[in-house]
Amino acid sequence: MGDSKVLIRHPDEFPIELKLQETHSVSTLPSSLQLICHSPTPFHLGENIQIKIPSIAENLEVYGVIQSCDDTPQGYELGITFNNSDALIRIRMLEQLCYIQRYRSHVLNEEGRELSDQDAALEWIGKYAHLFPTTN
């Protein structure tokens, strides 16, 4: 078996808030799922961070651990993993909401159809949910 990573790339059009956490947690679940996102500031490997995407879910926060931080012309590209199944489920749900909103905007711009949140979610799930990375 290899150390294959499953990546979810965060859509840049939804601002992501990353806040350093002082607590140092020990990984309780080896996670192959990794969130890839951009940050204007660097983080160090192993640092614990709080992740929020207020434009999608104002009160939802997820905690992760920095696994990589690569310098890019636009700032830094981070790889973040998660310590437990609750965090994996929450980040996957949060990112799916981002992709559903992206789909909703795409349909409006390309097809002129204005979808409700629920209709956009139902359409996106029917077309793309089977392609979205899983947390196992």
Task: Give an overview of the whole structure.
The chain has 136 residues and is an alpha+beta fold. The chain is built from two helices and six strands; from the N terminus they run ββββββαα. The protein has helices at residues 85-111, 117-128, and strands spanning 6-9, 17-21, 33-39, 48-52, 61-72, 75-81. A six-stranded mixed β-sheet has the order 1-3-6-5-4-2. A hairpin with an 8-residue loop joins β4 (48-52) and β5 (61-72). The chain is globular and about 45 Å long. The model has no long low-confidence stretch (mean pLDDT 89).
What's this entry about, in short?
The chain has helices at 85-111, 117-128, and strands at 6-9, 17-21, 33-39, 48-52, 61-72, 75-81.
What is the residue-averaged pLDDT?
A: 89
- Global geometry: globular
| Low-pLDDT stretches | none
Sequence of secondary-structure elements: EEEEEEHH
| Cα gyration radius (Å) | 16 Å
**Count of helices?**
2
Sheet/helix structural class: alpha+beta
End-to-end gap: 14 Å
Number of β-strand runs? 6
**What characterizes the major β-sheet?**
6 strands, mixed
**Proportion of strand residues:** 25-35%
Going across the major beta sheet, what is the strand order? Answer: 1-3-6-5-4-2
User: Portion of residues in helices?
Assistant: 25-40%
